[in-house]
């Protein structure tokens, strides 16, 4: 009897035979007491009675899959004689139970450097039905193509594996909708939340937003020479960046209020006559373990200022001249130099 059979349905039973005649062959039937079934007699045109089994209430195979009944036929003789037969009722399964996941929501954490093909986790569902109605296959529900390309689920086992590389800086997590479908077409769904864990796979990047070069050598200390942007797409300590200048350049780094911007300013006076330019190497290091570094090179040219007076090669020249020297004769040549350049270094005499 199928568990979908409505109460009131009747099922004919085999009639008993008695070789006696008259009262000795008059038969009555009895059925062992069971709340799910009762016995009725169907009168035939020939006057005989056909026993029928009546379903009294709905069946549920998942609660009870079979019943053992005993049908007894009793004659009307004296002494009474009886015969009995066992009736086994097997309840046929109906697909009245959908699959049920062990958890409504699963969680997994994956490092962004997890190799392709690695197992994420195994979802599991069960079905109280039997046979093909209890056979479960797994698949993904409706999700963006970006997510469907990144993961695969085994239809038989429910094992989810990684199908493409992860990138924390691109996507920090995924929500997968996994479906379990039984052989009768009933479907259940659960969520799998995949958290992507950051790995220090990005070195800091230094971008020169502006650079004032050349810088006048008489520029005051504190003058802004360059504006830099330092960026590290990693998170947490992996994205915390510290900067330093290498060498003995007359510049220092000042962090802006935003944190990601750095300002290069003059830390001491410039002197073009000592150095006409400065080659700077800015190094940025993050807080990862191991740390990653990024560098940028900056060349700052010093613009000359007229801060040097001409200097004679001698402070005093002594010349002996005969009194009969002709007019126009060269008596002595004096020489002066200027450490400045260009017009500032051109010397005129008077």
Automatic annotation (TrEMBL):
Keywords: Calcium, Cell adhesion, Cell membrane, Glycoprotein, Membrane, Repeat, Signal, Transmembrane, Transmembrane helix. It comes from the Eukaryota. Pfam families: Cadherin. InterPro entries: Cadherin-like_dom, Cadherin-like_sf, Cadherin_CS, Protocadherin/Cadherin-CA. GO terms for cellular component: plasma membrane. It is a single-pass type I membrane protein. One of its GO terms (molecular function) is calcium ion binding. It is found in: Cell membrane. The keyword Cell membrane applies. One of its GO terms (biological process) is homophilic cell adhesion via plasma membrane adhesion molecules. Residues 16-101, 102-206, 207-312, 313-350 form the Cadherin domain. This is PCDGH protein.
């Amino acid at each position: 009897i199928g568990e979908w059979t409505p109460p009131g349905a009747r099922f004919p039973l085999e009639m008993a035979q008695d070789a006696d005649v008259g009262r000795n062959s008059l038969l009555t039937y009895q059925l062992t007491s069971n709340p799910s079934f009762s016995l009725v007699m169907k009168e035939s045109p020939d006057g005989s009675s056909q026993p029928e089994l009546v379903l009294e209430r709905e069946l549920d195979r998942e609660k009870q899959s079979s019943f053992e009944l005993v049908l007894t036929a009793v004659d009307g003789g004296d002494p009474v004689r009886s015969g009995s037969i066992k009736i086994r009722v097997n309840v046929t399964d109906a697909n009245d139970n959908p699959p049920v996941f062990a958890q409504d929501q699963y969680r997994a954490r994956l490092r962004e450097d997890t190799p392709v093909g690695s197992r994420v986790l195994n979802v599991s569902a069960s079905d109280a039905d039997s046979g093909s109605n209890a056979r479960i296959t797994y698949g993904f529900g409706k999700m963006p193509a970006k997510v469907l390309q990144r993961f695969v689920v085994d239809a038989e086992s429910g094992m989810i594996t990684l199908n493409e590389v992860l990138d924390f800086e691109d996507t920090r997590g995924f929500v997968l909708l996994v479906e379990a479908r039984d052989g009768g077409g009933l479907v259940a769904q659960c969520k799998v939340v995949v958290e992507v864990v950051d790995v220090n796979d990005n070195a800091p990047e230094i971008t020169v937003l502006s650079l004032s070069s050349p810088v006048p050598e008489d520029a005051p200390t504190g003058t802004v020479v360059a504006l830099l942007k330092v960026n590290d797409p990693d998170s947490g300590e992996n994205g915390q960046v510290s900067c330093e200048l290498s060498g003995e350049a007359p510049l220092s780094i000042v962090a802006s209020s935003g944190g990601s911007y750095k300002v290069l300013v003059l830390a001491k006076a410039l002197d073009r006559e000592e150095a006409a330019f400065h080659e700077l190497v800015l190094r940025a290091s993050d807080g990862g373990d191991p740390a990653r570094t990024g560098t940028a090179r900056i060349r700052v040219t010093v613009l000359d200022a007229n801060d040097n007076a001409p200097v004679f090669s001698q402070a005093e020249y002594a010349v002996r001249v005969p009194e009969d020297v002709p007019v126009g004769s060269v008596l002595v040549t004096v020489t002066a130099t200027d450490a400045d350049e260009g017009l500032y270094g051109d010397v005129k005499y008077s």
